[in-house]
Amino acid sequence: MSAEKINPYKDSELGKKEQVAQMFDNISEKYDGLNRVISLGIDVKWRKKVVDIVSKNNPKQILDIATGTGDLALMMADLNPNKIVGLDISAGMLEVGKQKIAKANLTDKIEMIVGDSEDMPFNDNTFDAITVSFGVRNFANLNKGLKEIARVLKPTGVLVILETSNPTKFPFKQGYKFYTNFILPIIGKLFSKDKVAYSYLSESANSFPFGEALNNILQKNGFTSTEHKPVTFGVATIYTASK
What we know:
- With about 240 residues, the chain is an alpha/beta fold.
- It has 8 helices and 7 strands.
- It has a 7-stranded mixed β-sheet, sandwiched between helices.
- The longest helix is centred in the N-terminal third of the chain and has 23 residues, at about 15-40.
- It is globular.
- The chain starts with 15 loop residues before the first helix and ends with a strand.
């Protein structure tokens, strides 16, 4: 089953987009703490790698799609761009992010807006760098979302995606499957009032195309120079691409 067909709430009448927004609204207050627990804190290290890649482009205008509570946007503020826009479909997650940004005195640098990654309110060729961390697998239409990213990225710009992937080597492959299928949903249920959210997150992670497969999808949707680099035994992968 493709990741696009996997929805958080099996019996909901809503489309995937609305369901994903609802799910993240439901878990937004617990999300940061839970994320650190689930990834054993390694996600911070992965984001640092993303920031390093972005820094090479010396970007002035940055867009962080599926920004959530703004972790990556906050880290990229150190690159001293003129503006960072954090876009997310979940108003609940953005509210948490806005509080973190205010606390860091970065409200004038980072703007958080509710929006749909498949239909963005930006002109063509606006951004020097676009990042998506753990967001592309929640796109309702992956091809449409990537084409839209290509549209708003400058010809000289860089796209950096951080996304879950599945380890392919023994014993990491087996260990990861056990962790995502059994441990992850239990942790999620202990922490969160939304019982299905973490089952959805692990299910969508397990079925999302990664490595060469995602590179090919990027190329099909207007990107070149696509590269992918697995991190931490392949439980996540960092992709870079140009237009």
